[in-house]
Design goal:
The protein is α/β, with parallel strands linked by helices. It has three domains: 136 residues, no CATH class; 73 residues, no CATH class; 185 residues, no CATH class. 50% of the residues lie in helices and 11% in strands. It is built from 21 helices and ten strands. β9 and β10 form a beta hairpin. Keywords: Plasmid.
């Protein structure tokens, strides 16, 4: 499949920013005390320190928050080699977790020791290791690592389908479901709000696993294609990914969108985001996307807001006024987040760029996402509010924000097959809800 542009790189910032459970804090504190004591007496040999620290508790090594914090603490102490030796001492536990294996690869890449980790991963896979992964463990979050490490991690992650004769995308997603660990905080936050109360918890979680598996395969396929350049992408990635999002049906659904005026689509950083982005470009071949990635400025059909969000916003306004189609995700980490929305009792500050563009241009604006329907994924287009005669921007902005929040809630309370996560919303639902600020 075509490589496509770079898709926003995931990071560990979400887990790192969440409240630290006491038991996690105690384990990290013990490690820090050992490291500092060793430095005081000059015993800084990485293998010795790793031996003193012992094995990372198995119950911790599959915890993304613990691993993110561990990695940051060791980097602060300038002890990357110690961290790598620590992970290599416990390969059975390390490589039963995609996240921990990814941390090992990132650390090894910085030390010039990638081959060591890649060899252990290959041996673990050959020995039948069943690596599990969390909802945020997309391949592109482990950056930067060499292409060989990318494919090694992918082979570990996708072992159930790498040699599987099943050819359908949906079948491959279902085969990956048992490997996914939905975070219990997400389940606790969303399950009580489901629209269909007849779905019991086990079935709901299973269907969320399917959503995450489908989203991971699609996103990781794009990452693999982008990283590999002209090198062959593994067949279990490239095989029929786009067949799961049939173009003719998408064009039929989006035929309601006017072609004789500018159009603004808003989406969000959850659901099937990569399907939205990649298929938007297939449906609207001359459409423009706003992304925060620096690489977007070099890709056709992209506007980068990394350097100057204000300039990007006015470039987007000109394109809409010239009759173009634009896609943006206002809930991303860019620009000035001055517009508050409330989703299921959780508040989030977002950028008001989409509301501004819709108000100033008077264009057709809509919420765009992809949903599972009839065994395939298809676009859902919901028209947004139009500016009323004489309506002030402040009033319109609030109406637009309510519409945007309502459509996001519709995903999180609707069919579980559409509930996949990225960093922003994982962080929102992993915290306790708080009331919106007054005014």
């Amino acid at each position: 499949m075509a490589a496509g542009p770079d898709i926003d790189t995931e990071t560990d910032e979400t887990e790192d920013a969440l409240p630290v459970p006491p038991q996690v804090g105690e384990t990290l504190k013990r490690f820090e005390e050992v490291l500092r004591a060793a430095k005081r007496v000059g015993r800084t040999d990485p293998k010795h320190l790793a031996s003193v620290l012992g094995r990372v508790p198995a119950r911790r090594i599959s915890d993304p928050q613990f691993m993110a914090l561990l990695r940051r603490r060791f980097e602060q102490e300038d002890c990357r080699e110690v961290l790598l030796e620590l992970l290599l001492r416990t390969p059975a536990e390390t490589f039963s977790s995609v996240h921990a294996a990814g941390v090992a690869l990132v650390t090894a890449a910085r030390l010039g020791r990638s081959a060591e980790v890649e060899d252990i991963m290959a041996a673990q896979r050959a020995g039948g290791a069943e690596a599990r992964f969390g909802v945020l463990d997309y391949i592109n979050r482990f950056h930067p690592i060499p292409p060989a490490s990318i494919f090694g991690l992918a082979a570990l992650k996708y072992a159930p389908v790498a040699d599987d004769p099943r050819e359908g995308f949906v079948e491959r997603a279902r085969a990956m479901m048992p490997r996914i660990d939905p975070d219990p905080r997400l389940v606790a936050a969303l399950f009580p709000h489901r629209d269909n109360p007849r779905i019991h918890r086990e079935a709901w979680v299973s269907r969320v696993r399917f959503a995450c598996a489908a989203d991971h395969i699609f996103q990781d396929a794009i990452t693999a294609g982008f990283i590999s350049g002209r090198a062959p992408v593994p067949e279990y990635f490239s095989r029929d990914v786009y067949e799961s999002t049939p173009l003719e049906r998408a064009r039929e659904i989006t035929s309601v969108v006017p072609r004789d005026r500018g159009v603004l689509f808003s989406t969000f950083h959850a659901g099937h985001l990569t399907m939205v982005r990649l298929n938007f470009q297939r449906i609207f071949e001359t459409g423009i996307q706003i992304q925060r990635s620096n690489s977007a400025q070099y890709a056709p059909g992209m506007i980068s807001i990394a350097d100057n969000p204000r300039a990007a916003l006015f470039s987007a306004l000109r394109m809409i006024e010239d009759g173009g189609q634009l896609l943006m995700a206002p809930d991303g980490h860019w620009g000035e987040s001055r517009l508050a929305i409330s989703v299921l009792g959780h508040t989030l500050d977002i950028g008001e760029g989409a509301a501004f563009l819709a108000y100033e241009s008077g264009c057709y604006n809509a919420f765009l996402t992809y949903v599972f329907d009839g065994g395939v994924f298809v676009p859902r287009v919901v028209e947004g509010p139009q500016k009323l005669p004489g309506e002030k921007y402040r009033a319109y902005r609030q109406r637009w924000a309510q519409f945007y929040a309502r459509e996001i809630e519709r995903i999180f309370t609707g069919r579980p097959e559409n509930i996949a996560f990225r960093n922003r919303w994982f962080g929102v639902f992993a915290r306790r809800p708080r009331a919106p600020a007054a005014g």
